[in-house]
Design a protein that fits this description.
The structure holds two protein chains of two kinds.
Chain A lengths: L1 E10 L2 E7 L3 E6 L6 H13 L8 H4 L6 E9 L5 E9 L5 E4 L2 E2 L12 E4 L5 H4 L2 H15 L2 H23 L5 H44 L5 E4 L4 H4 L1 H7 L1 H7 L12 E4 L2 E2 H4 L2 H23 L4 E5 L7 H9 L5 E6 L11 E6 L2 E4 L1
Parallel strand pairs in A: 3-13, 3-14, 8-12, 12-13
Antiparallel strand pairs in A: 1-2, 1-4, 4-5, 5-6, 6-7, 9-10, 10-11, 14-15
Helix pairs in contact in A: 4-5, 4-6, 5-6, 6-8, 6-11
Chain B lengths: L6 H11 L6 H13 L2 H17 L1 E2 L6 E2 L5 H4 L4 E8 L2 H10 L4 E5 L17 H11 L3 E4 L5 H14 L5 E4 L15 H9 L6
The chains are: A alpha/beta, B alpha/beta.
């Protein structure tokens, strides 16, 4: 699947912007603050209906405008062409049209355009908290099968309901609370056991791919491992919740479950969050994204668009060249403020100056 | 939103805005519409509201909306008293009645378990349901709560409560709309329908 044409109206700093994109590697060059990342953000928005910079809708609409439009012509692998139009408005709801037909539910767009983004912020995959790594696992699952988006929302809801119930108990475990907790726990476990299995399978498949991607970037073999082994999975969540019940009631929160899981990562047997160098952490974060991208490509039978936002400035020349040498097949968009390392090569070059685009 | 209108208008807008599904903009539009229509139209609406509020109450047995002590369904002698269909709201009864497939009685819980909204088993009409079993000779209870998280949990709670009493407890099936196309079904419904598949004779 590739995005052939992208048009922006009142999106971020673009009054109007029009980009012809191609398969292969497109380099988007521009000084800081000219709109390179905004272009990457618009592409990614089509895939997730949210900003990868976690910006609220207001921030995406150009100051002084009531609405922004992202319009994309997408060519599927089988040759079909789809026109996707997203209108962001505030106040008001986002609207989505596919081939000029309005979608009843905006969420139905999920899965129609698939995009993998790597940005400098992704360093949090290594340096951030467990929640950042859970989001990586879950976002990758959603990219593999959109049903996981519903699963994830339902787990959030059950945890919120259960925590409220625990707070209402006020530290006392009455018979009535016991019986009510029993049913919430049963419902929680029914979904969480499946989700835990999905995460574990995902991590098992990602492990060799992260390893390989890291080695290609670093240029040397490096012992590296991802581990997802929450204790509750060995007994099942119902048993784990029962064991933690006294504690949960005392603290008024759910202390066990998929919402507390950690994906731990080690380099040379040492935790990468605390022991790896800055360069190793950047390389690992990039390797995680590239592995996720490869898994989604292999499992869904088509490569998502790979967007590498301002990644070259973060890597030394050696690693930048290694990255460009090993780029996966499919459409790749790279934004950068500087020219490419001499050994590298791009198929197309776009130059962005203050929201205006020219083609080399 | 701070009121910029003369007091009675703002009160009307605020009251309308408290209704479910009515946002500030709709409330404003309805308020100005009501101010424009002939007085008797507005009075008729006001009367309809107060009249319904005064005459309609909950059925003493099943908590359906009713004009008398018992609702028309509970008063209907032709109904099969051994089967009771448990629903969250009165409006669910209307939906099931339209099918013409069910000839038993109903029981309205007046909600579903949701700690976030402060609703636990005690807030629902569950004790009242248990009290009906003996005197009415109920043998089967069909759980027709909504197929969402809260509805499922409520159904699970009731099943655990009712099965030990020796009743037949069933749950309404989830699945595909009749007359629809498979390809247009959302993946959640289709997944549920696959789970609940049955053998064909």
């Amino acid at each position: 699947m590739i995005v052939e044409h992208l048009e922006l109206v009142d999106f971020r700093n673009y009054v109007t912007g029009s980009f012809d994109l191609h398969s292969g590697t497109t380099l988007v060059i521009g000084d800081n603050g000219q709109g390179k990342t905004n272009l990457a953000e618009a592409l990614a928005f089509l895939a997730t209906l949210s900003s990868f910079r976690s910006a609220p809708t207001e921030a995406l609409i150009r100051a002084g405008s009531a609405a922004a439009i992202i319009r994309a012509t997408v060519r599927q692998d089988d040759g079909r062409e789809t026109l996707i139009e997203v209108e962001l408005a505030t106040p008001g709801r986002n609207r989505v049209q596919v081939n000029r037909q309005k979608l009843a539910r905006v969420r139905d767009l999920l899965g129609a355009v698939r995009v993998t983004v790597f940005s400098p912020d992704d360093l949090i995959l290594v340096k951030g908290g467990p929640g950042d790594r859970r989001r990586f696992m879950d976002d990758t699952l959603v990219a593999l099968a959109t049903k996981y988006d519903n699963v994830r929302l339902e787990i959030d809801r059950i945890v919120r309901q259960r925590n409220t119930l625990l707070k209402q108990a006020g530290g006392r475990l009455t018979d009535e609370i016991e019986v009510t907790l029993d049913v919430w726990d049963a419902k929680f476990a029914e979904i969480a056991d499946q989700f835990g299995y999905a995460r574990a399978t995902l991590v098992a498949r990602l492990n060799p791919m992260v390893h390989e991607a890291y080695e290609q970037l670093a240029g040397v073999p490096t012992p590296l491992e991802l581990q997802y082994e929450p204790a509750w999975r060995s007994s099942g969540l119902v048993a784990a919740l029962a064991a933690a019940r006294q504690l949960d009631v005392r603290r008024g929160v759910s202390t066990v479950g998929p919402h507390r899981d950690e994906l731990s990562m080690t380099i040379n047997g040492l935790p990468s969050r605390t022991h790896a160098s800055q360069g190793e952490q950047r390389t690992l974060a990039l390797a995680l994204r590239l592995a996720g991208h490869r898994l989604v490509t292999e499992r869904t039978g088509g490569a998502p668009v790979l967007v590498l936002d301002d990644v070259l400035s973060e890597l030394d020349d050696h690693r930048a060249t290694a990255l460009l040498d090993h780029l996966p097949a499919g459409q790749v968009v790279i934004t950068t403020a500087s020219e490419l390392p001499p050994a590298a090569h791009a198929d197309h070059v776009l130059r962005v100056v203050a929201g205006n685009v020219s083609q080399d | 939103m701070a009121g910029n209108y003369t007091a009675p208008v703002q009160v009307l807008i605020d009251e309308l805005g408290r209704l479910p599904g009515i946002g500030p903009k709709s409330a404003q539009r309805i308020a100005f519409h009501l101010l424009k229509v002939p007085t008797e139209d507005a009075t008729r609406l006001a009367f309809a509201i107060t009249d319904a509020k005064a005459r309609v109450r909950f059925c003493e047995r099943c908590f359906n909306v009713s004009e008398g002590a018992l609702c028309p369904i509970c008063n209907d002698d032709a109904r099969d008293t051994s089967k009771v269909c448990v629903v969250e709201e009165s409006r669910d009864i209307v939906a099931i009645e339209k099918t013409g497939e069910f000839r038993g009685r109903y029981h309205v819980l007046l909600g579903a378990m949701s700690p976030l909204e402060g609703i636990g088993p005690e807030q629902l009409k569950i004790r009242e349901l248990i009290a009906r079993i003996e005197p009415e000779g109920i043998e089967e209870i069909i759980l027709c709560t909504n197929p969402n998280t809260e509805g499922e949990v409520t159904a699970m709670y009731l099943a655990r409560l009712l099965k030990p009493i020796g009743l037949t407890v069933t749950r309404i099936a989830s699945g595909l709309p009749v007359g629809g196309d498979l390809e247009y079904a959302d993946e959640l419904t289709l997944g549920r329908a696959l789970e609940g598949r049955r053998t064909v004779d």
